[in-house]
Amino acid sequence: MSIILETKGLTKKYKNGIALNNVSIQVEKGMVYGLLGPNGAGKSTLLKIITRAIPKSLGEVMFENHLLAADDVKKIGAIIEHPAIYPNLTAYENLEVITTLLNIDRKKIDEVLSMVSLNNTGKKLAKEFSLGMKQRLGIAMALINSPLLLILDEPTNGLDPVGIQELRELIKMLSGQGITIILSSHILSEVGQIADKIGILNKGHLSYEGQNTDSSKLEDLFMEIIIKDVMNDD
User: Is the pLDDT of residue 231 over 60?
Assistant: First the structure.
């Protein structure tokens, strides 16, 4: 399998400490990569560096076998923290803004709205959407530029069980269409059900990376790694 994204020794230093320390991950094309870790582990920091939202301190980000450049970001769709939705616009109008900014054919709007099951929302404003609908609209916004890589940072936060189930099915469907997905979460059960490969971040370190061969043992693996890290700190 060819590698679409790789980080090599990625480090992010702040005045009050190190958010990421020598993190090297490999994401193969077409897979769902589950990025796990407790809150504050460094997951969002890693994803922000990958999308060039913040600069790295050390290390490299490789995209399709070359150093990640500004132009490559056009091939990456991302929701990090919260989708940037205009509350007083409809789903269609939210996407229309992006197509205008990026000079994308408006025919793409109906296509992505259909993909995320928002094609029947009509004139309903985004502020009237449920949390699950807003999350799906955010994903539609991330998909509008036909990305090769989709990054979803804690997408199930605040969702009810129905919303979580809908999102899980959507991620499986997108993966089935060949889109590579990095799914960041602290909810092990969700990631375990859909990820092909797992990376576990803890305190800025990559503590584990490997294939998700047995999701039933993922929680045991996670706890073993976190406890080992705590003991190593002592």
Answer: yes
| pTM listed for this prediction | 0.90
Residue 116, domain extent? 3-233
Quote the tokens at residue 87.
Answer: 């509350």
Question: What span, in angstroms and rounded, lies between the C-alpha atoms of 148 and 25?
Answer: 17
Residue with tokens 């490559």: 72
Asked whether the beta carbons of 175 and 212 are under 8 A apart, the reply is no
The one-character DSSP state at 198 is E
17: domain CATH number is 3.40.50.300
- Reported in sequence order, the residue ranges of the chain that DSSP labels E, i.e. its strands, are 3-14, 17-23, 26-28, 32-36, 58-63, 66-67, 76-79, 149-153, 180-185, 197-202, 205-211
What is the rounded CA–CA span in Å between residue 180 and residue 153? 14
Q: How many domains does the chain have?
A: 1
